[in-house]
Amino acid sequence: MEYFLRNFSHVPDDKLHWTPTPTAKSAIRIAAHTALYAGRFAKMIRDRRLPVTGRLQEWLAERDAEEMAITTREEVERVFREGTKEVLEALDTLKPEDIELSLDSGQGWAMPMTFLIGLPGFHATLHAGQIDYLQTCWGDMEVYVG
């Protein structure tokens, strides 16, 4: 989370909603997605189940609307910090036998709990790379290490 937020903090205000193409996601949209998923991952860990849905397209539309409703840097940070706190609390509820669980997706595949517990950090790192790429698109070649 801190790594992602540090990278996101280097996005200039006038570039928060910029996209390299009309169908690409902006830095704020990527950040909103990343922030919201922290809480979603916490729920999966806490409930020991994936969001099984027979209405995937509706669920994706709801997810997209939630992401687009986050429009400021401050909202991203607040949601991300709250979700990360929830992840840590959810991890604290796991018992040794829970680590061996495999969670059914309802779509013909399963996710091992060992993968899910690492997913919040992995997910944020992946999306930090998207922010880095956008920065290079507008000519920011600075390497931010602190």
Topology:
Blueprint: H1 2-9, H2 27-47, H3 56-69, H4 73-92, E1 102-104, E2 110-112, H5 113-137
Antiparallel strand pairs: 1-2
CATH architecture: Up-down Bundle
Strand content: under 5%
Taken together, the total number of domains comes to: 1
The CATH topology corresponds to: Four Helix Bundle (Hemerythrin (Met), subunit A)
Largest sheet: 2 strands, antiparallel
Can you tell me the overall shape?
Answer: globular
Written description of the protein model:
With 146 residues, the chain is mainly alpha-helical. The protein has one domain (2-137): dinb family like domain (Four Helix Bundle (Hemerythrin (Met), subunit A)). 60% of the residues lie in helices and 4% in strands. The chain contains five helices and two strands. The protein has helices at residues 2-9, 27-47, 56-69, 73-92, 113-137, and strands spanning 102-104, 110-112. The chain has a two-stranded antiparallel sheet with strand order 1-2. It starts with a helix and ends in a 9-residue tail after the last helix.
